[in-house]
Specification:
By secondary structure, this protein is an alpha/beta fold. 37% of the residues lie in helices and 17% in strands. It has two domains: 203 residues, inorganic pyrophosphatase (n-terminal core); 128 residues, Diaminopimelate Epimerase, Chain A, domain 1 (Roll), CATH 3.10.310.
Length: 355
């Protein structure tokens, strides 16, 4: 019996199931957890959702989001739940370090572990069944594949579909990157299931607070640097900025993406100073892999066009270290800067004819 058949056999009767995702969970992390939560609830399983830290306020509206336990806020409540689990789902992460102390608890249990994830280089040996595909747009796309493998399509109601659609939207930046024909077909299927994509877009992308908008204006006006020679943009935030704007978790979400709105910018870096660490978020256009930059120079990783890392050397030295990388990838940056015809090499095409 292979691992998928074992999982199917286990889930034929109600089980104690824990769904977990990474620190600083985003729309794909929360969407993948909640989609399986609502689906498996219909099948009679006893479910708990746990993440290491709080998620952004713009996801609070999601059905059953209030049921998600935050380990940082409930360190005594979470361990017994994990220890008692029969099945644990690892969603939207591929290394136990991404879930901090929860990872230690999960590793120590005898529960059947399931990993569903789309990040590069998954840690081996931490899951009994693994559905991993780094070319997928999102973990929610893979959750849809998992539902098909399990034969659970009949349990996909509008609530489940809405949660999956949330992951698609957020991890593709509103269908701007990481897309494929499959993603658009899946989006159409979810809309047919009852998802109101206009309302969902509004909830996810038009829900900034006044503080967030003022912070964005400050970052663009006073903390942005454009390096035209390297087709690169940098935004930094200092500890004083965090104090002045009373920045909390989620307030800086998406700031790095504004750099990519500039035609000449192909590589974007958001470098911000924390109390004990300096974090760097990287985004890119085209075939430039920021995952390699994050992994090689900043102890991080992620996706080809969206990755992150950190350093302990302070804000100024981290910025200088990032700039020192740019001459090494100049050729790649110049190549990406040559905007191709999107249809070149895919056939000449024929103009439509009218009768």
């Amino acid at each position: 019996m292979d691992s998928l058949d074992r999982l199917k056999d286990l889930l034929r009767q109600p089980r104690k199931v824990v769904l977990t995702s990474h620190r600083n969970p985003d729309g794909d992390a929360i969407g993948s957890m909640l989609s399986l939560y609502h689906l498996m609830y219909q099948l009679g399983h006893q479910l708990h959702m746990i993440v290491p830290s709080a998620f952004p306020e713009f996801l609070d509206w999601m059905p059953a989001a209030e049921q998600i336990l935050i380990y940082d806020e409930a360190p005594e409540q979470c361990p017994p739940i994990v220890q008692d689990a029969e099945i644990i789902f690892y969603l939207d992460f591929n290394d136990l370090e991404r879930i901090d102390k929860i990872g230690e608890l999960c590793h120590a249990t005898q529960a059947f572990k399931v990993m569903i994830d789309h990040h590069l280089l998954p840690q081996q040996g931490i899951a009994d069944y693994m559905l991993s595909n780094s070319t997928a747009s999102s973990t929610c796309e893979l959750v849809w594949d998992f539902i098909g493998l399990m034969g659970w399509q009949a349990q996909v109601n509008c609530t489940v579909a809405e949660c999956i659609f949330t992951g698609l939207l957020t991890d593709t930046g509103g269908f701007k990157y990481g897309t494929s024909p499959k993603v658009y077909r899946l989006a159409a299927l979810l809309i047919e299931q009852g998802v109101d994509d206009v309302v969902l877009q509004d909830r996810l992308f038009n829900s900034m607070s006044e503080k967030q908008l003022r912070l964005l204006g400050h970052a663009l006006a006073h903390r942005m640097e454009i390096l035209d020679e390297y087709h690169t943009g940098i935004i930094t935030l200092t500890k004083k900025d965090y104090e002045r704007f009373e920045i909390s978790r989620g307030d800086t979400e998406g700031i790095v993406n504004y750099l990519l709105k500039l035609r000449n910018v192909k590589l974007a870096a958001f470098i911000h100073e924390q109390p004990t660490i300096t974090k760097i978020s990287l985004r890119s256009k085209g075939d430039l892999s920021v995952q390699e930059i994050a992994q090689k120079y900043f102890k991080g990783g992620g996706h080809k066009n969206a990755s992150g890392g950190y350093s302990y050397i302070g804000l100024g030295p981290t910025v200088r270290k990032f700039k020192s990388v740019l001459p090494k990838i100049r050729d790649q940056l110049n190549k990406v800067a040559q905007i191709p015809d999107p249809c070149r090499g895919k056939g000449e095409g024929k103009p439509p004819t009218s009768e």
